[in-house]
Design a protein that fits this description.
By secondary structure, the protein is an alpha+beta fold. The strands form 3 sheets. Strands 8, 9, 10, 11, 12 and 13 form a 6-stranded antiparallel sheet that branches. Strands 4-7-5-6 form a 4-stranded antiparallel sheet, with helices on one face. It has a 3-stranded parallel sheet with strand order 2-1-3, sandwiched between helices. It has 11 helices and 13 strands. α1 (14-27) links the parallel β1 (2-8) and β2. The protein has 3 domains: 2-86, Rossmann fold, CATH 3.40.50; 93-109 and 178-282, D-amino Acid Aminotransferase, Chain A, domain 1, CATH 3.30.470.20; 115-175, Dna Ligase, domain 1. The chain starts with a strand and ends in a 6-residue tail after the last helix.
């Protein structure tokens, strides 16, 4: 089978995507797949490169806008090329944090809910004061904690909002919830071992903590049975409510035994320091086995959706 590993892209997460793609290429089983790296530098690249490569499956190593938001998934569907992970709808929903939070709240899932501003025209520090400091300011459709800031007071607020607005037209301002940081990786509807996260050099799990060597301590955590069940139910409810398929990662803050879902990632990072491969390893899966499972499940999912011929 000829697999195209699609990476790069035009979002703020391009560098993380290139790292993900490099790691995936390194671990793909060459006895099973012919691997074709496909680096996207601009929107027009995708269709031309994919058609030229003649691939059987697109293994998506993209992150952020034009990659994780359903755009690339829709283009590949138009070309009739199966791809890994969730479909167009789930990708779009999960990329839009405000919309996904509204849906999760309607399903009874706890999630931080604050303000959503449409640019600097909505800037109103009094509303944030009512929300209560500290707050988290973030782009509505960002990822990898890029453009996300922990704001302690009104003096820091404007700069943080302007930076987030430079990356997205919509800005989220949410209460900063302290507690135990957890991540739940889900593959084929199964929650893998839950990881607890502790940033080593920062107050919260920011970009440096996520991607720098030694930036965070991440290990399987043993929760009390009742709490473990609550966390798994919150993760799975989020996964299903947002129509995710094949795999995803749900980020959670556990506060006083109540899980608060922060976001759902439909194309979680797969770098050497990423959480999904670590969780899979704790479940006894090698990186190569994880990729095999994602590929097989994605082909099955696209077949179910499209009624297409199964690839072998």
């Amino acid at each position: 089978m000829k697999i195209g590993v699609i990476m790069g892209g035009i979002s703020s997460e391009r560098e993380v995507s290139l790292q993900t793609g490099k790691e995936i290429i390194h671990h793909l089983d060459r006895n099973r797949y012919e691997v074709i790296p496909i680096v996207i530098d601009e929107r027009a690249d995708l269709i031309e490169q994919v058609q030229k490569a003649g691939i059987d499956l697109a293994l998506l190593a993209l992150h952020g806008q034009y990659g994780e938001d359903g755009t690339v998934q829709g283009a590949l569907e138009t070309l009739g090329i199966p791809y890994t992970g969730s479909g167009v709808l789930a990708s779009s929903l999960c990329m839009n944090k405000q919309l996904s939070k509204m849906l999760l709240k309607s399903a009874g899932v706890h999630t931080p809910v604050g303000l959503c501003w449409h640019g600097m025209k909505d800037y109103d520090p009094q509303m944030v004061k009512q929300l209560g400091y500290p707050v988290i300011v973030k782009p509505n459709t960002g990822g990898s904690s890029i453009g996300v800031q922990l704001v302690q007071n009104e003096q820091e607020l404007r700069v943080a909002v302007q930076e987030a607005n430079s990356m997205d037209q919509e800005i989220l301002i949410e209460p900063y919830i302290t507690g135990m940081e957890l991540t739940c990786s889900i593959v084929d509807g199964e929650v893998l071992p839950i990881l607890g996260i502790r940033s080593t050099h920062s107050v919260w799990f920011d970009y440096k903590a996520k991607y720098e060597d030694g930036g965070a301590e991440e290990k399987v955590i043993q929760l009390p049975p009742v709490t473990h069940q609550r966390v798994c139910e919150a993760a799975l409810t989020s996964y299903r409510m947002l129509q995710c398929k094949v795999y995803a990662r749900v980020d959670i803050i556990l506060r006083e035994d109540v899980p608060y879902v922060l976001e759902v990632n439909t194309l979680p990072g797969m770098t050497a320091n990423s959480l999904l491969p670590k969780s899979a390893a704790a479940a006894g899966m090698t990186f190569t086995q994880l990729l095999d499972r994602i590929i097989a499940s994605s082909l099955h999912e696209r077949k179910q959706e499209w009624g297409m011929v199964q690839y072998v």
